[in-house]
Design goal:
675 residues, alpha+beta, nine-stranded mixed β-sheet, 25 strands, binds calcium ion
Length: 675
C-alpha cells in the first residue's frame, strides 16, 4: 500500500467514497472512486503556478462519459471530505484540451467547493499543438465544442448528490482562453448549468481567431523581409507609448484604452538600411496588417478585430504567440495550421500559406462555426435563469484580441441590457489570461496570485460569488502588479467595468488605486465592429461645449471647444456645424464651419460626408445603440475619426484625427449646453 488513509467518513455523506464507483449514471463509466489524503501537487502546471500547492483531502471520482458511440469524455470530480461549502465549481480547459486540468481544480477545492473538470473528449500529448482527434471524428469535435462541459456538469452534480445527499446550492464555471469559450458556450447553450460564470479572454469566435492567426502569420511571412525579429518588439512598443501613453492622462507605460491610440508605424521607418531600432517598409506593412486584422479581400468585410497597439514588447504577449526568431515558430502559426488543416479540411499537410481569406474562411465558418463558435449574443435565457457572467480580458492579449470581447459585449447589449447580469473588465497591460504587466493580478491566476485573502474587490471569483449570492454587482476590481519597467515597485489600480476606465485624479501616488476613479472612456471606437445596431441619428439643434486637446507643431494644449449644430431636417441627416476653439485666456485659436451629412446605408452603417475648408471628407461609419462612430480619409492622407453618443437629453462626443503633416491630433469631450 502506497500510503495509509485514516479519514473519518463525512457526516453528510449518503454513500462512502468507494461506493460511488458502483453508482449507475447515464452513458457513464466510473473508473475509480477513492479517498485521497492531503497531498502536495506535483503534476503539470501550464502557468507554473500550482506546483507545490497543498491539495486538501478529497474523494476523487474519475469516469468516462460516452453520449455517442465515438465519445470518450474523461472527467474528474473532487469532493471535499470535510468543510464542503455546499457549492460546485467546474473548471475549464486551455488550448485544444486533451487532458483533465487538475491544476485548476486545486483553488476551488481549497475554497471548499466540490469541483470537476474534463479533458473535453479526447486525449492529447502534453505540450503539443494538435487537433488530430477531430480528423474523421465529428462527434469528438462536438464533444470538444460544447458537449463535454455540459455532460461533465450533469454527472458531477449527480455524484455530489450521491455523496453529500443534496445538490449544490450554487454552481459556477471558471475558464480562460479555451475555458473562456467553454464559459460563454455554457451561458449560450446551457443557461441553467451554472449560476455564476467567469469567461476570461474567451476564444469565443474560434474560427475567427484562427483566421486572425493565419492572417498575422501570412503578413509576417509575406516576403522574407516581412518577418519582424523579436528584438524589434520593444522598439515598436516604445514608439507606441511615446505617441499614446499620455492620452489617458497619465504617462505610466500603460494604455487605459488602446483604442484611443492612433499609432503610425512609419515613424519607425529605417532611413539607412535595416537596423534593430527601425522597421523596413515590408515590416511596416506587416505591422499595419496585424493592427488592422483580417479582412475578406473580395468584400472588404472585417473577419476578426486586429490587435491593439501598446504591448508589442511586453514579455509573453507578441513574442511567442505571434513572433519568434524562426519565422514559422510562433504559436499562432501552429494553431492556425492545426485548425484549418486538421479540423476544417482534415488534411494535416495543409499549409496556411495557401489559405484563401474568402472561400476557405466561409468553409470554416459553415463547417465548424456552429460547433465551436460561442458567438450567440442572445443571453436572455441565461439572464432569465438568474445567471451572472463576469468577463475579463487583458489589453495586452496577443492570443485573443480584447476587441473581440468588446464586440461580443456590444452585441449582447444590442439585445438586452447587460448591466444586471453581464460585466466586462479590460485590464491595461495584462497578457493572455494573466500576468506580466499592469494590474494583472486580481485572483485570476488561482494559487499563484500574490493577492492574499478573498476580498471581493481584489479576488475576481469572490466578486462573482458576492454578485450571485448577495446580488452585489462588481463596478470595479482592484488589480495588483508592478510598475513598468521598475519591477520592484508595487502598483495597484482599479479595473473598471466596461466602458469605464481608470482615470488618475491628478494628484497622489499614481501607483495607488485610491488615486484613481472609474470614469468615462477616453475614446470609444471599435473599428470594424460587426454587431447589429440602429441607424437613426437623432441629432438636434443646439450648442455644445467641452474641453479639447489640440496637438500640432505650433501649439499643444487644452482649449475650450464650442459647437453650434443646426440640424436641417428638411434635408434628412444634414447638419451645419460651427466649431470654435478658445485658448484658456479666451482668445480664439481658430474656428471653422462644416456641413456633415449622414446617409444610412445597410444595417447599422452610415455614410458620412463632411464639407469643410479641408475639403470633402467621406467615410463609412456605424452606430451601436446610442453610440455612433465614423472614420474617414482625405485624399491628402488625413484620417478623421469621430465617436459620439446620442441620447434624448445629451450629446457627448470624442474625436481624434491624424495626418502626416504638421497637424497631429486633437480630441474633444462635448456636452450639450442646456437651452
Ligand atoms: Ca498611460
Amino acid at each position: 500500500m502506497a500510503f495509509m488513509v485514516t479519514l473519518a467518513q463525512p457526516a453528510l455523506a449518503q454513500r462512502s467514497c468507494d461506493a460511488l464507483a458502483s453508482l449507475t449514471l447515464g452513458f457513464t463509466t466510473i473508473t475509480s472512486a477513492a479517498l485521497l489524503p492531503e497531498t502536495t501537487y506535483s503534476g503539470p502546471a501550464p502557468l507554473g503556478l500550482a506546483t507545490g500547492a497543498r491539495v486538501p483531502s478529497r474523494c476523487e471520482v474519475i469516469g468516462v462519459i460516452a453520449p455517442t458511440p465515438d465519445s470518450a469524455i474523461r472527467f474528474a470530480v473532487w469532493l471535499p471530505v470535510t468543510g464542503w461549502n455546499g457549492k460546485y465549481r467546474q473548471e475549464g480547459n486551455s488550448g485544444w484540451a486533451g487532458a483533465i486540468p487538475y491544476w485548476n481544480m486545486i483553488d476551488p477545492l481549497r475554497r471548499g467547493y466540490a469541483t470537476a473538470a474534463t479533458d473535453n473528449g479526447h486525449v492529447a500529448a502534453p505540450g503539443v499543438v494538435s487537433a488530430a482527434f477531430a480528423i474523421g471524428h465529428p462527434e469528438k469535435l462536438i464533444d470538444f465544442g460544447y458537449r463535454a462541459v455540459h455532460e461533465t456538469s450533469v454527472q458531477a452534480k449527480a455524484l455530489i448528490h450521491a455523496f453529500y445527499g443534496r445538490t449544490p446550492v450554487h454552481s459556477y464555471f471558471v475558464g480562460c482562453s479555451e475555458g473562456g469559450r467553454e464559459a460563454l458556450m455554457s451561458a449560450q447553450r446551457h443557461p441553467d448549468d451554472f449560476q455564476g460564470i467567469i469567461a476570461a479572454a474567451p476564444s469565443a469566435d474560434y474560427s475567427g481567431i484562427m483566421t486572425a492567426f493565419a492572417w498575422n502569420q501570412r503578413a509576417l511571412l509575406d516576403t522574407p523581409a516581412s518577418h519582424i525579429p523579436p528584438r524589434k518588439l520593444p522598439v515598436i512598443q516604445r514608439a507606441v507609448l511615446a505617441a499614446c501613453d499620455g492620452v489617458d492622462g497619465l504617462r505610466d507605460n500603460l494604455l487605459e484604452d488602446p483604442r484611443a491610440c492612433r499609432f503610425d508605424p512609419s515613424v519607425l521607418a529605417c532611413k539607412t538600411g535595416d537596423r534593430d531600432d527601425c522597421l523596413t517598409a515590408s515590416q511596416i506593412d506587416a505591422l499595419l496588417k496585424v493592427y488592422g486584422g483580417p479582412t475578406n479581400p473580395r468584400t472588404g468585410d472585417q473577419l476578426f478585430p486586429g490587435l491593439p497597439a501598446g504591448h508589442e514588447g511586453t514579455p509573453r504577449t507578441w513574442a511567442g504567440w505571434m513572433i519568434t526568431e524562426s519565422p514559422t515558430g510562433a504559436l499562432q502559426f501552429a494553431h492556425a495550421n492545426v485548425f484549418y488543416g486538421q479540423v476544417v479540411f482534415e488534411r494535416p499537410s495543409w499549409d496556411l500559406r495557401t489559405l484563401d481569406f474568402d472561400r476557405d474562411v466561409i468553409i470554416a465558418k459553415e463547417k465548424v462555426g456552429p460547433i465551436l463558435d460561442a458567438t450567440n449574443a442572445d443571453l436572455r435565457a441565461f439572464r432569465a435563469s438568474g445567471g451572472k457572467l463576469l468577463q475579463y480580458h487583458g489589453w495586452g492579449d496577443a492570443a485573443v484580441s480584447p476587441l473581440a470581447s468588446i464586440e461580443y459585449y456590444d452585441a449582447v447589449r444590442a439585445l438586452t441590457s447587460p448591466d444586471d447580469f453581464y460585466r466586462l473588465f479590460l485590464v491595461p497591460g495584462m497578457g493572455h489570461c494573466g500576468g506580466v504587466a499592469g494590474p494583472a493580478y486580481f485572483g485570476n491566476v488561482g494559487l499563484g496570485d500574490p493577492v492574499e485573502g478573498r476580498d471581493p474587490e481584489r479576488d475576481v471569483f469572490s466578486a462573482l460569488e458576492r454578485w450571485v449570492e448577495q446580488g452585489v454587482p462588481p463596478d470595479h476590481l482592484i488589480g495588483t502588479g508592478t510598475v513598468t519597467p521598475d519591477s520592484n515597485t508595487r502598483l495597484t489600480r482599479p479595473i473598471c467595468a466596461y466602458p469605464a476606465v481608470a482615470r488618475y485624479k491628478g494628484s497622489g501616488d499614481a501607483n495607488e488605486a485610491t488615486n484613481f476613479v472609474c470614469g468615462p472612456p477616453v475614446l470609444v471606437t471599435s473599428p470594424g465592429a460587426r454587431a447589429p445596431g440602429v441607424t437613426d441619428l437623432p441629432f438636434t439643434n443646439g450648442r455644445f461645449e467641452g474641453r479639447g486637446h489640440w496637438i500640432n507643431q505650433q501649439a499643444e494644449g487644452e482649449y475650450t471647444v464650442t459647437y453650434t449644430i443646426t440640424d436641417d431636417r428638411e434635408r434628412a441627416k444634414r447638419h451645419a456645424v460651427r466649431r470654435v476653439f478658445l485658448k484658456p485666456d479666451g482668445a480664439p485659436l481658430f474656428e471653422e464651419a462644416t456641413t456633415i451629412t449622414f446617409t444610412p446605408t445597410t444595417g447599422n452603417r452610415v455614410r458620412v460626408a463632411i464639407e469643410s475648408d479641408k475639403g470633402l471628407i467621406e467615410g463609412l461609419g456605424y452606430c451601436l445603440g446610442d453610440q455612433c462612430h465614423y472614420e474617414a480619409e482625405l485624399s491628402s492622407g488625413e484620417e478623421l475619426e469621430f465617436t459620439f453618443s446620442v441620447t434624448p437629453l445629451r450629446v457627448e462626443g470624442l474625436a481624434s484625427s491624424t495626418n502626416q503633416g504638421n497637424f497631429t491630433s486633437w480630441r474633444e469631450t462635448l456636452a450639450r449646453v442646456p437651452e
